[in-house]
């Protein structure tokens, strides 16, 4: 038994509850109760929370005061009324973000946050304590499905806080190590020369689970396998988050760490939206968020089981409500139910970022994941990054593998053109693919609007 885990559960969290009013454990207990509600009970709970948020927003939030005429609609049918609110894009939010702060609060009393900016301009926004604690409670609920409890040890392969001073960094590490029972391996500079030190650190700490970006976990797994290195202990699980987890990444991560991979679907500006259960299904956090799937072009709701843009309304953040916020992801809701015992509805698949979708010369949409399927059969290409600058202009960065053959590059180009049409492809060979400021690696990206 890990002594630090016991101390965190039995001393640190009770202290935070008693002296600081922290309610993470209370919210966790609530979510562990509601996950067993019936389908109708969950719908009723979500509708009640949505009605309350919409009514508050039209009365207290300047950005939504123009929708006061929807009062009757909201009272009668909030699920229908919300469709009369416009979809809120990140660009529109950035342009007038302060108008989304409630008149009942002061900005200075809120918790500032911002997205990493790996997909474009960073978004600055504010949260209140209740919202943040509900996010944390949702994460712990998802982890509890794999018998991971508050305080259990973890290692994070993550972006480190490089902006801190040396003294602040030491304080940060001590807080992480002793108050959160976790260590950090920086996702910014993963490289073969440091791998043995990383493995030594993990073997010494023996975290119950490992948590990180999908791309960083995949790269770490690749380094382990290519270096013929393994851990001397078996984690309960590896938790992938912050990016789309593809099947080929899951396979390699599980092969390297010798344990199952759990997918966490969330975002700084959306919270924990779904978590993978023991059966491998992604359960939606419907108590915290109202999620819509809309057509990429028309922005109208798609038919049940259809793929489209993820639109999120946080049901807890009254301090800075963002109604129908376009997260930037593409996903599909499921019509099925899970036999794991949880009644929460399912997310069928997460297809990636909206800007992972490319546009062929004939106007057809091509999901960037297709390039992963092509590259998988080319073992001379260790890693790649493909960026579409315009319909006819693509950059392809390639890291050579041990079995590199220039004919494979030409084969890759030919296969890309079969999908994309007659496009110009500029090839660059590199030693590594640099992560973004957030520590994530983007393998595919489109740099222009879909509708042109």
Q: What is the radius of gyration?
A: 23 Å
Q: Largest sheet, order of strands side by side? A: 4-3-5-6-7-8-9-13-12-11-10
Number of DSSP helical runs: 13
Distance between the termini: 58 Å
Basic shape: globular
Global structural class: alpha/beta
| Amount of helix | 25-40%
User: Unreliable segments (pLDDT under 50, ≥5 consecutive)?
Assistant: none
Describe the protein:
The longest helix is centred in the N-terminal third of the chain and has 22 residues, at 39-60. The strands form four sheets. This protein has an eleven-stranded mixed beta sheet with strand order 4-3-5-6-7-8-9-13-12-11-10, sandwiched between helices. A four-stranded mixed beta sheet has the order 18-17-16-19, covered by helices on one side. It has 452 residues and is α/β, with parallel strands linked by helices. Helix 10 (214-226) links the parallel strand 5 (209-213) and strand 6 (237-241). Helix 2 (24-34) packs across helix 7 and helix 10 (214-226) packs across helix 11 (247-257). The chain has helices at residues 3-20, 24-34, 39-60, 71-76, 78-81, 90-95, 129-144, 166-179, 195-205, 214-226, 247-257, 369-376, 406-420; strands at residues 111-114, 124-127, 154-158, 182-186, 209-213, 237-241, 261-267, 271-276, 282-284, 289-294, 307-314, 325-333, 346-353, 357-359, 365-367, 381-390, 393-400, 424-429, 444-446. The radius of gyration is 23 Å and the shape is globular. It has 13 helices and 19 strands.
């Amino acid at each position: 038994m890990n002594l630090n885990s016991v101390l965190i559960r039995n001393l640190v969290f009770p202290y935070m509850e008693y002296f600081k009013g922290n309610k993470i454990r209370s919210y966790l207990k609530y979510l562990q109760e509601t996950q067993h509600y019936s389908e109708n009970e969950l719908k009723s709970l979500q509708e009640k929370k949505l009605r309350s948020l919409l009514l508050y927003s039209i009365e207290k939030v300047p950005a939504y005061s123009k929708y006061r005429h929807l009062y009757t609609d909201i009272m009668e049918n909030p699920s229908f009324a919300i469709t009369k609110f416009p979809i809120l894009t990140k660009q529109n939010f950035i342009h007038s973000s302060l108008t989304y702060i409630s008149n009942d609060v002061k900005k200075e009393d809120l918790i500032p946050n911002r997205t990493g900016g790996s997909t474009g301009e960073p978004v600055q926004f504010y949260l209140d304590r209740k919202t943040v604690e509900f996010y944390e409670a949702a994460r712990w609920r998802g982890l509890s499905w794999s018998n991971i409890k508050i305080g259990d040890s973890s290692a994070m392969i993550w972006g480190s806080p490089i902006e801190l001073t040396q003294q602040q960094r030491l304080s940060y590490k001590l807080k992480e190590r002793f108050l959160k029972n976790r260590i950090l391996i920086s996702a910014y500079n993963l490289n073969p020369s440091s791998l043995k030190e990383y493995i030594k650190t993990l073997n010494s700490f023996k975290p119950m689970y490992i948590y990180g970006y999908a791309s960083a976990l995949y790269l770490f797994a690749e380094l382990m396998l290519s270096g013929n290195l393994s851990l001397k202990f078996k984690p309960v699980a590896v938790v992938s988050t912050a990016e789309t987890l593809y099947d080929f990444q899951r396979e390699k991560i599980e092969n390297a760490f010798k344990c199952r991979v759990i997918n966490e679907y969330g975002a700084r500006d959306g919270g924990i939206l779904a978590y993978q259960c023991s059966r491998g299904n992604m359960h939606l956090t419907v108590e915290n968020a109202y999620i819509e799937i809309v057509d990429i072009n028309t922005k109208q709701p798609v038919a049940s089981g259809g793929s489209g843009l993820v639109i999120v309304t946080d049901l807890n953040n009254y301090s800075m409500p963002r109604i129908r916020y376009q997260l930037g992801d593409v996903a599909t809701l499921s019509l099925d139910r899970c036999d794991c015992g949880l009644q929460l509805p399912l997310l069928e698949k997460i297809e990636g970022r909206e800007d992972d979708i490319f546009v062929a010369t004939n106007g057809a949409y091509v999901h960037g994941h297709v390039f992963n399927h092509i590259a998988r059969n080319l073992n001379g290409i260790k890693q790649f990054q493909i960026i579409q600058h315009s319909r006819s202009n693509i950059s392809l960065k390639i890291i050579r593998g041990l079995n590199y053959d220039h004919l494979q590059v030409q084969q890759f180009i030919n296969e890309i053109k079969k999908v994309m049409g007659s496009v110009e492809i500029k090839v660059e060979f590199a030693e590594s693919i640099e992560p973004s400021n957030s520590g994530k690696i983007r393998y595919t990206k489109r740099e222009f609007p879909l509708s042109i």
